[in-house]
Amino acid sequence: MNELIQVIQHGKVVEVALNRPKIFNAFNLEMISELATVLTRLAVDSCVKGIALTGRGKAFCAGGDLKWAVHFSDKPGSSFYKLASQLHIAVLEIRQMNKPVVAAINGPAAGAGFALALACDFRIMEESAVLKQAYTSNGLSIDGGGTFTLPRMVGFARALEIAAFDRPISAKQALEWGLTTKVVKDGTALKGAIDMLNELAKGSLHSFGWSKRLLNESFINALESHLELEREGLADCADHPDGWEGLHAFIEKRKPVFKC
Questions:
Q1: What are the chain's domains?
Q2: DSSP state, 26?
Q3: DSSP assignment, residue 137?
């Protein structure tokens, strides 16, 4: 397969792989646009219960293809403007879809690859993989939602430290800082991600979607409006077939079997 983005079905779970391994899956406009399109399609596919995002070869994603960006036009700013536009569509699809997205970090995740990994709901990182924001070392500022997600994960002071000094972050350090969910042996990140998604698929996707939305919006809502959104979510979940099954399973003292 020669696609820039490879999509492989694993039962109810879909593997989405960045596929420019010779340049560590750095993306040009065509590749990031294709990723945005794929994620948009999968977000509304009722047969898909979760997405494992990974990279082919030795890297997760090295970020934007800087050589492509510099030669795209007389002013590289225009190329980054276009790249960021499509990257941000991909990030929004990940954050807004009501299904889990797990980053299987099989190697370096740098620049926009770092931001893309942070946008996922969970991250499984191989022992030898590293995270690096990379932007500031190249005289650039961070995009892809990195300045939104990073301080919420590690706090403002540490986020600024990561931005200012741009030191590589090992898998062990990432786990200690809360930047990754789990560290696994090299070569097993994708399997770990698929296993996690299959476990999540046994639960209520509707409930997960509401939980994800409520946590996302908690950073921007006032308390009064957020409480109202929580009430709306609770009532909606209770009226959903999953909620009906969960409530009756509790009363009948059995494990729920969610079909939605």
A1: 5-201 (3.90.226.10), 205-251 (1.10.12)
A2: -
A3: G
Query: Angle of helix 205-217 relative to helix 241-251, nearest 10 degrees?
Result: 110
Give the three-class secondary structure for 109: strand
Cα angle vertex 105, ends 99, 106, to 5°? 135
Six-digit token pair at 145?
Answer: 């939602």
Contact partners, residue 132, CB within 8 Å, separation at least 6? 108, 109, 110, 111, 114, 166, 167, 168, 169
Give residue-wise pLDDT tens across range 48-73. Answer: 999 999 999 999 999 988 888 777 66
**Spatial separation of the C-alpha atoms in residues 89 and 34, rounded to whole Å:** 11
Say how far apart CA 113 and CA 26 lie, in whole Å.
Answer: 8
28: its two tokens? 């040009």
Nearest partner of 168 among 105, 229, 114, judged by Cα: 114
Of 147, 167, 145, residue with least CA distance to 156: 147
Beta-carbon contacts of residue 165 (< 8 Å; ≥ 6 apart) = none
Is residue 54 a contact partner of residue 17, using CB atoms and an 8 Å limit?
yes
What are 114-158's pLDDT values in tens digits? 999 999 999 999 999 999 999 999 999 999 999 999 999 999 999
Say which residues have a Cβ less than 8 Å from residue 72's Cβ, sequence separation at least 6.
29, 78, 79, 82
Distance of CA 116 to the CA centre of its chain: 6
Contact 25, 113 (CB under 8 A): yes
